[in-house]
Amino acid sequence: MCTEYFSRDRPEGIDYSLGFDRARVVHSEQKYEYDRPLYVGDVLVGDTTVEEIYQREGRNGGIMMFAVLRTDFRDKDGEHVLSAYNTRIETGGAIAGESE
């Protein structure tokens, strides 16, 4: 079973927001790098770290903040199985249709 924990599943008292305004955050890119195939019955544990944070000027003005998160998944023997990368962007303005 492979379970990646999202904000609603995370332990109480831990802030994963990176200081971003949730009304202005979008998910950008997701990629996976496998060291071996996943097998039925695999139980993986993930450890997430901030790989990189940077900013860039937006096309319509304003500054966009980028955060690249890497989650390393290990099997029951502690062997690295895969790394998952996802990029979150805090835009220069609120995203239409979104609310907190």
The radius of gyration computed from the alpha-carbon positions, rounded to a whole number of angstroms, is 16 Å
Give the proportion of residues in helices. Answer: under 10%
- Average of per-residue pLDDT values: 79
- Counting DSSP E segments of at least 2 residues, the number of strands comes to 4
Strand content: over 45%
Low-confidence stretches: 1-8
Strand order of the largest sheet: 1-4-3-2
The named CATH superfamily of the domain at 23-90: Hotdog Thioesterase
Overall morphology: elongated
Under the CATH scheme, the architecture of the domain at 23-90 is Roll
The tally of helices reads 0
CATH class of the domain at 23-90: Alpha Beta
Q: Could you state the order of secondary-structure elements as H and E?
A: EEEE
End-to-end C-alpha gap: 31 Å
